[in-house]
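Handout, page 2. Input:
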Amino acid sequence: MKFIDETVITVKAGNGGSGCMSFRREKYIPFGGPDGGDGGNGGSIIVKATDSLNTLADFRNKSIFTAENGKSGGSKNKHGRNGDDLIINLPLGCVITDNQTDEQLCDLDDENKTYVLANGGEHGYGNVRFKTSTNRAPRKKTSGKEGESKEIKIVLKVLADVGLVGLPNAGKSSFLQAVSMARPKVADYEFTTLTPNLGVVLYSDYEKFVIADIPGIIEGASKGVGLGTRFLKHISRTKMLLNLIDCSNKSYEMIKTEVEKIKHELQSYDEMLIKKDLWIVINKIDLISEKQVSNLKDSFEKDKINVYFISTITKAGVKELTDNIYEFLKYENRIK
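Output:
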């Protein structure tokens, strides 16, 4: 299924039901008083967060959502039935804004969190409501009010504890596959990952953390080049970032340049991203000699740069890295 992370829909709450104008007419009571009941309230449009969905694909072929109108009131003081609310289930992590004003309405960042997008119209009043000491037979009723209508924009931002960033073909998908149950597409060419992938790392029977594999960053991504801002927004919620780097056929200076390039794109997109904990992970050490690995380690230590060396193929260094990620998240009280 294609990953769809942004959509615009129109929501229309139900109208309130009209009040009834009626007079009591029973045997032996030819001139009974008013008995017209009120109408029912219109149904509201409510959004609800659920982790059972991970895309907005359900909105691909439907863009208008309407709640039920309230029913009209009846004689004998019968109130009209309220219209049913319409509950729209959305993936956890959706941010909803008014498409006309750009005002943020809600952030569905917790499971089962709800928000009323459009309120149903208030019911109309039956003529019994207008009976007074001087007007015993009112011939007045009111119509129900119209329900709210809005055009809203829904943006899905992936919710994860850890975000994987790096240039295309750095091995991010392979790392996600190595540490979780996720099975992203893995191949030896650029932009294998075209959409964010989520993997859950089960650290124990009751503790876990979520890693998001973000499509590879290229120069100019912060300005929309390549997949650009389509994926950079997904790392805004992560607690920490792993910058994976393919070390094969690269000198120490080339690797440092790559690190700075990633930092520049993150900072250009959002200053807050560069303030996150960013760990450097040197990947594919199985493709270079032990001597080359040792030289790289010495160079990083000399420059006092903390890095991790791993191979997703041989699993070298992978457990140490995931252990440290777990300890970091646990220390920060971020383990789910």
